[in-house]
Write a structure and sequence with these properties.
Helices cover 5% and strands 49% of the residues. It is mainly β. The strands form two sheets. A four-stranded antiparallel beta sheet has the order 2-1-6-5. Strands 3-4 form a two-stranded antiparallel ribbon. The longest helix is centred in the middle third of the chain and has 6 residues. The relative contact order is 0.30.
Length: 124
């Protein structure tokens, strides 16, 4: 499995469940890029969508898992709509693009716990 950097361009979503008072409604737009370090053995990315509540706990809206084989092979997957599910039921769509840059120096001597998903969050 390749190692490297995965850029996720989070474009927008539509038809998301209205958990209460969604910050950007049920059709939010972000147009933000998040960068993750891909370690040996990673085959897909799992995204959990949460709304952002002020003063109360954030609500779980849905989730999706995207296999990374095509982005590893092609280097880039243009923005595409993916189905979001909650309890195995359709609950909207999220549009995102992917870009993978292979790591040229497999052993960089860096601690993999720095950065990556632990340092990133996407809320709407």
């Amino acid at each position: 499995m390749p190692q490297g950097t995965l850029e996720v361009l989070l474009v927008s979503a539509k038809k998301l469940e209205n958990t209460d008072f969604l910050y950007q409604g049920t059709n939010p737009e972000w147009n933000e890029t998040f960068v993750f370090t891909v370690s040996e053995g990673v085959k897909d990315i799992h995204l959990k969508i949460m709304d952002q509540d002020l003063g109360t706990r954030d609500d779980f809206v849905g989730e999706l898992t995207i296999p990374l084989a095509s982005v590893f092979a092609e280097g880039r997957v243009p923005p595409h709509s993916y189905t979001v599910v909650k309890n195995d039921h359709y609950c909207g769509e999220i549009r995102l693009g992917l870009k993978f840059t292979p790591d040229q120096n497999r052993n960089r001597g860096m601690d993999e716990s720095f950065g990556g998903w632990k340092e990133s969050a996407a809320y709407y």
